[in-house]
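Quick start: what a row looks like.
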Amino acid sequence: MMSIISVTSEEFLKFQTTPGFVAALDQSGGSTPKALRLYGIKEDAWSNDEEMFELVHQMRTRIITSPSFNGNRILAAILFENTMDREIEGVPTAYYLWDVKKIVPILKVDKGLAPEDKGVQLMKPIPQLDELLTRAKKNGIFGTKMRSVIKLANPIGIKEVVDQQFEVAEKIIAAGLVPIIEPEIDIHSPEKAQAEALLKECLASHLGHLPDHKYVMLKLTLPEEDDFYRAFVEHPQVLKVVALSGGYTREEANERLRRNHGVVASFSRALTEGLTAQQTPEEFDAMLDRSIQSIYDASIT
């Protein structure tokens, strides 16, 4: 039986009515070493995956427990499955986010990218997705995120990306969660603008077939044309359009974001830029506060 999303839930209403942005804290196995390296922890600091994930959880815990990291400016935080399964100050992470910080917890559910074909990278299969979604609901998760990548303006490849995203999104909606659909366009693509046009057409087609009681969010690369995705911002079944930083510096990502009205940030590397393990608590919080404020300001245009 379909589990209908509660449109009167506090989390749903927060997305609808509260200004702010989404913090992406979902680096997984492949991207964790780079995240730790940028944070000032070298690869000789761990000897296996468990030690590596413990270090990155300590980093995320430091961010999440910072006084600057709260629901006044942050709508939601995207978590890696390993983070959902851990605790912060003795409380399961997702419950800590909502109960203590009033930040909506989102779970990354994809298992990485398939090899490039037709100018795109589809998602790898997601085994035991139903079990993961059930566990996510029990853990207080509100929504999910899944990422594909578009490198070239290949209409067949882009259609396959969007078809796959919405196919998985149907299962997520049926589990009573709100999916974030993320068909990222590589910012270095030589056909970025053309790919954006094809993606917009495919997304509009799928959104046009969504029944009234179904909602999605879209996580998109900042476009070459300002306000290019305005129709999605205004779409009644798109709860929120969020933008990924995609490798842009925080300064450039913020500048592009300001020109896309109604779109809010969902930054990862741009959020944590400048944070290091070696900083004092005061230095760390001051840097994080400045980052959050700059991203918040760019998100409320």
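That is the whole record. The CA atoms of residues 142 and 294 lie 26 Å apart. The two ends are 40 Å apart (CA to CA).
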